[in-house]
Design brief:
alpha/beta; 40% helix; 10 helices; seven-stranded parallel β-sheet
Length: 334
């Protein structure tokens, strides 16, 4: 499938029923891997229903250290992709305790389990860790950029990142952190901005909503990549931690990579792209105060130079194709 070839190994994905987790599971299945995933009793399995019979699912709450340790001991994975988290930034202000508990303690439990049952760990970080203010001279953002989180969610991801460094240096666990910038595509939850837009447009097309789109901050600029490209980056990053790449031998037990397109788009541009694809005109835009964050990062645009050089990874799916697939996903559901 690229720089590191086939897999044929045992992998554990936390958050396998989620947006990125389900796409990552699909990718590993295509590679012939033995794919295991964690779920909870209330997990929505709709994202994996088409291939659930090819997976081995384990009931596990990542906040429960015993549950995590027991699952890792049973599976004995070669790789853990830790994607389970509270990922909605706006929700982290409404439920900061749950966000910190899930994202920090969950990560700690994964690292502790990996210490007792050695395997390579991939932690899904976030561009939100970089925070604000980002100066024009600091763009595009590289991995060495100072971390200045401005939301409880971002703080939780920085803490998880630092735990990864500590466990790699203290116990020699091989850990790779990917800081994915905004990513979207089919299966994106409706609370996230691109799906919020796409679902409203789909409802307008179906005659189920007035020609009004409610929105948050349309001036924020973000770096969007298709989720299917992002999970390929997750795959390559985990493979890299075996021994590095042919041209870049692995020197440290801890690595981090930005996964991004390197191109910034305002939320207004994102919305306009969807409207153009849908062929919708005469839409009224209405700002919804509930969709505004207490503090926001004006611009997040990343550099993927390190991922290109070490992982041989770069996005392949055009933004317009991602938006078309996302809109079609919501059309089918509306």
């Amino acid at each position: 499938m690229g720089a590191f070839g086939g897999v044929g190994m045992k992998v554990l994905i936390t958050g396998i029923t989620g947006f990125a987790g389900s796409h990552l599971a699909e990718l590993y299945l295509k590679e012939g891997a033995d794919v295991h995933g964690t779920t909870r009793w209330r997990s929505d399995l709709s994202n994996i229903r088409d291939f659930a019979d090819q997976l081995t699912l384990h009931n596990c709450d990542i906040r429960d250290a015993y549950s995590v340790a027991k699952t890792v001991e049973e599976v004995k994975p070669e790789f853990i992709h830790h994607l389970a988290a509270q990922t909605f930034v706006l929700e982290s202000w409404r439920a900061p305790q749950e966000t910190l508990s899930t994202n920090i303690l969950g990560t700690l439990n994964i690292l502790e389990a990996a210490r007792k049952h050695p395997c390579i760990v991939h932690l899904s970080g976030s561009s939100e860790e970089y925070g604000a203010p980002i100066l024009p001279a600091e763009l595009p953002i590289k991995e060495e950029q100072k971390l200045q989180p401005v939301s409880p969610y971002a703080v939780s991801k920085v803490a998880a990142d630092m735990l990864a460094v500590q466990y790699a240096k203290s116990y020699g666990i091989r850990v790779v952190v990917t800081r994915a910038f905004n990513h979207t595509g089919p299966r994106r939850g409706e609370v996230f901005v691109t799906s919020t837009f796409a679902k409203q447009i789909a409802r307008i097309l179906a005659g189920k909503q007035e020609s009004i789109i409610e929105h948050g901050n349309l001036e924020a600029i973000r770096d969007f990549t298709d989720v299917r490209d992002i999970v390929t980056g997750y795959f390559f990053a985990a493979q890299y931690m075996i021994a590095g790449s042919p041209t870049t031998p692995l020197k440290e037990d801890y690595e981090r990579f930005n996964l991004c397109s390197g191109e910034g788009r305002s939320m207004m541009q994102v919305l306009q792209t969807l409207l153009d694809i849908a062929g919708v005109r005469g839409i009224e835009l209405r700002e919804d105060p509930k969709r505004m964050r207490p503090s926001d990062v004006p611009i997040l645009v990343g550099s993927n130079q390190k991922a290109r050089e070490k992982l041989y990874w770069s996005p392949t799916i055009p933004f317009e194709k991602t938006m078309e697939d996302l809109l079609n996903y919501w059309k089918e559901r509306v």
